[in-house]
Amino acid sequence: MSPATGGRLIIPTTSERPGKMSTTMAYYVAFVALGLSVAVLGPTLPGLAEQTQSHLSQISYLFTAHALGYLLGSLQAGQIFDRVRGHPVMAAMLLVMAAALALIPLMPKLWLLIAVVLILGMAGATLDVGANALLVWIHGRKVGPYMNGLHFAFGVGAFLTPIVVAQLVLISGDITWSYWALALLMVPAAVWLARLPSPTRKAVSEDGSGEEVNHLLLVLIVIFFALYVGTEAAFGGWIFTYTVVQGLGSKTMAAYLTSAFWGSFTLGRLLALPIALGVRPRYILAADLVGCVVSVLVILLWPQSMVAIWGGTLGLGLSMASVFPVTITLAERRMTITGRVTSWFFVGASLGAMSLPWLIGQLFEPIGPQVTMYVIFIALIMAVAVLAVLIQFDSTHSEPGRERDT
User: Fold this and answer.
1) CATH number where 143 lies
2) What pLDDT, on a 0 to 100 scale, did the predictor assign at position 17?
């Protein structure tokens, strides 16, 4: 490796060069598919409860199962992508996701449904880790806007899902065709990825210094991801049921509100693309979290107001949009992003996505729907505190000549 690299960057190589942008676009299509699979549980939750004859406190275990699958998938995915070609693995995971989605509306028992959703989560996590790690390998220090673009693609899929579900339920009368349609949409992404050669990670440096990871920084980022992703999963998963039970609107309106959340989330990621080029990640994250706290506070202060629920939902989606990709960009400027490091990011994310929606499910019926917003608000305040520690740590331990990048 040339000394000019400083032993810090992971340099990708590709066989037969289909072009970086072609590969990047394939990841974007795969992330649209991932967004479709992640967002489908929320607007179909009442239908799945009816299908399995379960209460809301029981059906909420689907969120736990999906997050547990994400956790298990994240734990093993990093080693897989560090050792084997990534694109065949990612294509296979898309096909597994398609099969799981096709099976979900056919499961008559809750335990069977939980098992399928667990598999869906494992496949989604492996795809998620792979796309995030390989994108860094392709673009290196210039990954910032591409990372925001990747997660923008996820938002596109999540935005489209409630609309697809609402329309197909109106046409067919149940949720079956919604799941089958989404399953079919996984296949083109799998075919595209399978046809592209995979980027590989070269040895970072002769002395191994490029593999060093600041473990305290890694722990802070993992905790931050747990809190942030927990709030994202909780709001995206429960806003439909919250709106209906709170008496704020019909199921169709609740589906459109869910879509509005993911739509503003998607718009926020689009707006973040140029911002990520010129603004330090720490400032973007601070502004994002302030917007999140204010948006949820609006819903808490005016719980029966349609203006508040719509305004808070749109504001929360916009504010949450860039948190995940910007945090990964900040991390890339402080440590080498291997498959294993990326896996730990998703372990934290999975723990949050597993715990917060489950907690809301256990408290929703005995306390009432307002507990949804209280749990999310408290988690966001905790995330602000962790971010403050993370920024202080990053400032104290920044390397000479690199502070301008963060």
Assistant:
1) 1.20.1250.20
2) 42
Q: Report pLDDT for 140.
A: 74
Q: Name the token pair of 400.
A: 């000479």
Distance, CA of 143 to CA of 212 (rounded, Å)? 20
Residue 254 has pLDDT above 60, yes or no: yes
Q: For 321-362, write each residue's pLDDT tens digit.
A: 889 888 887 787 777 767 778 788 888 888 888 889 889 988
Helix (H, G, I), strand (E, B) or coil at 58: helix
Angle, helices 251-278 vs 143-172, to 10°: value is 170
CA separation for the pair 49, 60 (Å, rounded):
9
Number of domains into which the chain is organized: 1
Stretch 230-248: mean pLDDT: 88
Q: What's the CA dihedral at 338, 213, 289, 362 to 10 degrees? A: 80
Whole-angstrom distance, CA of residue 277 vs CA of residue 12: 22
The pair of three-digit structure tokens given for residue 355, joined into one six-digit string: 């715990």
Cα–Cα nearest to 45, from 113, 125, 119, 118: 113
Closest CA to 232 of 2, 63, 28: 63
Cβ-contact 52, 156 below 8 angstroms: no
Q: Which domain holds residue 160?
A: 19-198+209-396
Q: Report the predicted TM-score, pTM, of the whole model to 2 decimal places.
A: 0.71
Kindly state whether residue 328 falls inside one of the protein's structural domains: yes
Residue 162 in domain: yes
Least confident of 128-142, 192-206, 237-251: 192-206
Cα torsion 275, 279, 280, 282 to 10°: value is -60
Would 78 be classed as within a structural domain? yes
Number of H helices, E strands in the chain: 15, 2
For residues 223-229, average pLDDT:
93
Identify residue 61 by its one-letter amino acid code: Y
Report the chain's C-alpha Rg in angstroms. 20
- The proportion of the chain whose per-residue pLDDT surpasses 90, expressed as a percent, equals 32
Distances in Å between the Cα of 118 and the Cα atoms of 76, 238, 384 are 15, 19, 30
Contacts of 221 (CB under 8 A, 6+ apart): 327, 331, 345, 348, 390
Copy the structure tokens of residue 192: 């595209």
Residue 186 counted as domain residue: yes
For residues 392 and 396, what is the distance between their CA atoms, to the nearest angstrom? Answer: 6
List the one residue out of 56, 48, 32 whose CA is nearest residue 367.
56
DSSP state of 203: P
Give the residue-averaged pLDDT of 158-162.
82
